[in-house]
Structures are given as structure tokens and as C-alpha cells.
Design a protein that fits this description.
Layout (H helix, E strand, L loop, with lengths): L1 H17 L1 H11 L8 H7 L9 H27 L5 H32 L9 H7 L9 H26 L2
Helix pairs in contact: 1-4, 4-5, 5-7
Length: 171
């Protein structure tokens, strides 16, 4: 199980770091009301390195999220197998459960990642400690329900698809 945690977490960090500018662009497009929030503006006002702003917190979030997701998925399969025999359904159920648990565990970091990505030149928060002091705990969980729905569905479909295509291509 320790190896599963490490592999899942490390893979997430590598993927998140390579795709950080795309994540920043996505967040900016979702928050179109923020003035001067384009990749071009980030480069002009801050510099190229700021295309990765929020990536540190994103990696802190991604490692446990994907590690917990994979580990809980593996841990719950034997329990669900006691009552359900359809392997595809087992993957869907365990994937949804593991995705929900992972999102509940890491959601404050998801919220902070978005806040850090949207600020310019550290205009609101100087770092993680500063942000935790300024943001009420309850506010760190705003949007949790939608994120659970999204990530648990993604996790269910991912684990089910892996099962389905493994069977399909091994025929």
C-alpha cells in the first residue's frame, strides 16, 4: 500500500507540473471577471515563471489526492466484492467512494490553489501560512459538494474504463 501511495502521488506531481500553465489558463477562463487574467498578461506583468503560480500548492494537493484515491480504491474492493460479483460495478462503486474520500481530504488545498492562481504578484496572500490566517476555515470548503460530484464521477469512470479496456484488449 505504501508503494501505491508513492506511485499515485509522484505521478500526480509530475503531471501537474508539466500542465501547470494549462491549469492556470483554465482557471483564468473560468473566472473571466478577473481583470487582465490571461497568460499573456501574466507573462507581461509578472514573468514566465508565474505561469506556474499555484503549482506548489497544486502539487501539495495532488500528491495526497491521487495517493488517497488509489489506496482507498484498492482497500475497498475486497469489502465491496463480498456483496457484489460484477467486477465492472465494483470498479464504479469503489472509484466513486475513493474519489469522494480523496476530495474531502484535500479540498482546502484545492480552494487555496485556485485563490493563489488568480492573484497577481501575491496581491492577497504571501503564502500558505498567510492565507490560512486570513481565510476562515468554513470558507475553505466552499464548492466542496460540486467537487465531490465531479471527482467521484471522474474516478468511477477512470477505474471502470481501465477494467473495461483491459478486458477488451486482452480478448
Amino acid at each position: 500500500m505504501i508503494i501505491d501511495l508513492f506511485v499515485g502521488g509522484t505521478s500526480a506531481i509530475i503531471a501537474r507540473t508539466f500542465t501547470a500553465p494549462l491549469e492556470l489558463c483554465k482557471i483564468q477562463k473560468q473566472n473571466y471577471f478577473v481583470p487582465n487574467a490571461t497568460l499573456r498578461d501574466v507573462i507581461k506583468k509578472e514573468n514566465v515563471a508565474y505561469l506556474w503560480k499555484g503549482n506548489g500548492i497544486n502539487c501539495l494537493r495532488a500528491f495526497p489526492q491521487f495517493a488517497i484515491n488509489y489506496a482507498v480504491f484498492e482497500k475497498t474492493k475486497p469489502m465491496v466484492r463480498k456483496n457484489i460479483k460484477n467486477e465492472g460495478l465494483i470498479k464504479l462503486i469503489c472509484g466513486g467512494l475513493s474519489g469522494s474520500i480523496a476530495m474531502m481530504c484535500i479540498y482546502p488545498l484545492e480552494n487555496l490553489k485556485t485563490r493563489f492562481s488568480l492573484q497577481t504578484n501575491k496581491s492577497h496572500y504571501r503564502g500558505m501560512t498567510d492565507s490560512v490566517k486570513k481565510i476562515p476555515v468554513r470558507e475553505l470548503y466552499n464548492g466542496l459538494t460540486m467537487s465531490i460530484l465531479g471527482f467521484s464521477a471522474w474516478s468511477s469512470i477512470t477505474f471502470y474504463s481501465h477494467h473495461y479496456y483491459t478486458i477488451l484488449f486482452n480478448k
